[in-house]
Amino acid sequence: MEEPSLHGGIKSGKLDDHSGIKPASDEGSNVDDPPPIPRASSSIQLTEKSADESRLETTLESTTKDVDIDYCAHTLARSDVAAHLQTDLERGLTTQETATRQAQYGKNQLETSGGTKWPQILVQQVSNSLTVVLVIAMAISYGTSDFIEGGVITAVILLNVVVGFIQDYRAEQTIASLLAMAAPVSKVVRQGAMTTIKADELVRGDLVQLNVGDIVPADLRLTSTINLATDEAALTGESKPSTKNAEAVLKELDIPAGDRNNIAYSSTVVTRGRGAGIVISTGMHTEIGKIAQLLRKCKESANKDDPWFKRALHKTSGATKSALGLVGTPLQVKLSWFALFLFALAILLAIVVFSVSLWDIDNETLIYGICVAVAVVPESLIAVLTITMAIGSKAMARGNVVVRKMGALEAIGGVTNICSDKTGTLTQGKMLARKAFLPGGRVLEVTNETSPFDPTTGELTCQGSRVSGDTVLYDSELRGLFQTMALCNLSSVFQKAETESNTQPTWTATGEPTEIALQVMAMRADHGKKDVLEREGMTPITEHPFDSSVKRMTTIFETRDEKRLVAFTKGAVEVLLPLIDVPADIRKNILAHANEMASSGLRVLCLCYREFPATDMVSLRDRAFVENQLTFAGLVGLYDPPRIESASAIRQCQQAGITVHMLTGDHLMTATSIAKEIGILGSHVTGSSSGSAIMTAHQFDQLSDDALDDLETLPLVLARCSPNTKLRMLHALHRRGLFCAMTGDGVNDSPALKGADVGVAMGLNGSDVSKEAADMVLTDDNFASIVSAIREGRRLFDNIQKFLLHLLISNISQVILLLIGLAFQDRHGNSVFPLSPIEILWANLITSSPLAIGLGMEQASADVMVRRPHSLKAGVFTKELITDKFIYGTCMGCLCLINYVIVVFGASDGDLGFDCNANYNDSCGLAYRARGTAYSTLTVLLSVMALEAKHLTLGLFNMEPTKPGLKSFFTTLTKNRFLFFGVLVGMLTPLPIIYTPVINQAVFRHHPLSWEWGLVFGSVVCFVALVETWKALKRRKLRKGPALDDPQKTEESSIA
Length: 1056
Prior knowledge:
Blueprint: H1 51-54, H2 57-66, H3 69-72, H4 78-84, H5 95-105, H6 118-126, H7 129-143, H8 147-174, E1 185-190, E2 193-198, E3 207-210, E4 219-231, H9 233-236, E5 242-243, E6 263-264, E7 269-281, H10 287-296, H11 308-323, H12 330-356, H13 363-376, H14 381-398, E8 401-403, H15 407-411, E9 417-420, H16 422-426, E10 432-437, E11 443-447, E12 459-462, E13 465-466, H17 469-473, H18 476-487, E14 492-495, E15 507-510, H19 513-524, H20 529-536, E16 539-547, E17 552-558, E18 564-572, H21 573-576, H22 584-599, E19 603-613, H23 623-626, E20 631-639, H24 646-655, E21 659-663, H25 668-678, E22 694-696, H26 697-702, H27 705-710, E23 717-719, H28 723-735, E24 740-744, H29 750-755, E25 758-762, H30 768-773, E26 776-778, H31 784-820, H32 837-856, H33 879-906, H34 925-948, H35 965-974, H36 977-988, H37 990-995, H38 999-1003, H39 1012-1039, H40 1050-1055
Parallel strand pairs: 9-21, 9-24, 21-23, 22-23, 24-25, 25-26
Antiparallel strand pairs: 1-2, 1-3, 3-7, 4-5, 4-6, 4-7, 8-26, 10-11, 10-20, 11-12, 12-13, 14-15, 16-17, 17-18, 18-19, 19-20
Helix pairs in contact: 6-8, 7-8, 8-14, 8-32, 12-13, 13-31, 13-32, 14-31, 14-32, 18-19, 18-20, 24-31, 31-32, 31-33, 31-34, 32-34, 32-36, 33-34, 33-39, 34-36, 34-39
């Protein structure tokens, strides 16, 4: 190796790193060729082997025969891997061999899902039971030549499909990055020459070179490393860069991926040093590819060993359920079953109508049967639900949440457990120097920091006193500590200039996370690198870079007077402690403090320095000489700090009855410390003190499913997680009947995101794989945004209940009116319907839809986040909702019926003419006027009911308890402006329908009203009185105390 330059740093020269391709220098210059290595044969017989390369010689042949090289490469020496792959470590592969291998293994790229498939999205819009019911109703209408009714239903179906398609397609376009995580280009040696190629052209056996900032293009068995480290946070979940060592030969085949320090993984980033390696896996065979394959596997309900007819049955059953919408979120499944029930009920009622006529089915009877069937179906339900979902997704987008699947909107509000990754999700994914220990025993602490890169935030205190730049200047211990932090450091922390888009200056940094954290801490005391060099007049001379074999780094500076040299060293405590020139008892004291800091989840570094006379300039080339008899400057504890909002967000989740679990690839001690800091663990958390609250993945994976189910509490903190561990955790939660959300940003989170009931990915720092696997994406990577999503989901669930109540009341009242109306017969003995089919469709679509949408836009109640998740078993159809809709529907239907009877029999002789269902003739005047009265009563009562449905328990005149009397009523009336104007329109709708000539008689089959309006408004008074009486009875029952296990009653009981 060439001699180091004392004034220009250590020069790049020949690199003798045993065998293998040599990495290029940092400056990009070439290196001298290493001694030639003979081409290895397939029999793996090598003439020269080092000790570590020959340890597995006796078992290598059998191992490589039975196990693929990408599985065992970490247990083999570099030359053995090259021999297995038939690669020349000097010249690489030939062009002909490269073409052969690419034809054999394919391109080095991940298989994508093919982008956004609009036909598939379109099919999803019609694959539900409600749409099937509407399609059948449309077909029957056209079949009976009722083109007006058929056209209206067709318009409804198109509205449902178009709105849902646009919403889902836009969401897919927003997350259209898919699985594009491969490096775009790569430096590779082929036929003895260095060349740059596209990463997807790499094949197994290629020799790849790596430099700082490169994205690793494939899985590599490293052949040479110079201070190499890669960021594997997206793959393993660890925020600390992984130091690599090409010489390492590991003994265990099944060692976790994060601990294979001689392997560089595809899509990870080189953060330090340089290196070279042999490609052992490409494309879907890499570690990231294996995770992508987990996402692509279909969940087959039938076992592959089952007979063909059983597999066919399962496949047919699955396809049928999917077509009818019987798979998906709880709300989707509940509504699909409800639609099937309505379809069956429509058929049953039609049979009832035909039975009344003794199956003498003429045109009049057929129209009446269709009328009853149409009355059963809430035609606008899908349209209202789709529009409400679209409005909800826009509201979430304003709250930094992109919804990829509309079903996740209502599902997120019902989650009972959140399984969250730590790194980059609950924490910032950056290092922060939190605490320092001085030689004299004093302790420095950093508190109230808001950004890991901003030295102007946070407070630096020593024994309770604030530390400033002046304090450090007159304190030798502090000065020695901060000078070592600042000068044994290659990072740069600086402030970005203001821009047009960002008027507030921001801080950024380049370099290793650990060094950035130390530099920021020094800058907080006005002792950053630039400040110290200017103040002390020091000049950098040389450095001994960090090396994984010695675990330390040293920089050397010359003082202004050129009479002294100062070496600043940092490294692992166990490495530097023997090199410190202090008595044994002081060493023990330092070690005790280091262990104490480590036990609190901090990564501990030791800082030292040493002064030399300028005459020792030549001796600086000897690293052993420089890094000896050091002066202890202090200990520094670093960690990946929690996001500022994480603690508050977790507390809100816990208040909402949601349990938060931390599933991380980090170490147990670090994970536990963070969990306690943000409130996942604590005395206020149920199960936090149980023996199973904190576990490692190894402990968790050793338990059988039955053993997991027997645990009193599933782990709140699960450390060193693999993708399979996270999936097992989700399955264990599902077996307990819990509804789970998973948040994460790394590739390693993707299978769990896919398997969770609601997958939530991070948008800024999240991997593309995780975004595709998720149901929704947080665009600001802020865990607190999930609280907004849950709030919006619960608001949406409440509002769905409100407009379901409103829509179903309309159907129940119409069915009651029509069934009893069978008794009203004309001169020929045919039943005359009290409502025509078009009147029913108009009331269900034109009148009810705006009112239902308005209810869907209601604001969240004040205590929406302090009550437990709603019952997933009951779903939206709670006992209270079912009871209310039958009571209110019966009242409404009876009032419409009473008005109809008064007009027909009270004010007239009851002669309903003949053939008045299909067309108008002179005998139909009374039937048409009575029909108009029933329709107007129904429409006005539906408008009033929309106001009553704003709250299931509070009355119309006391929904705003803080405002007395009429003020409460008017506030309730105008608070939701969309609903307010919808009610006004609903009240006025009957006027043009009743009084417009031709249309009223030919289309709607009714006549104008006169004195009958008195009956309509009298019905309003009676209906409001009946509803208010029922709500008062419910409030009285709640005052006596609701059941403690009924989460639906929390809000009402607190109000009552």
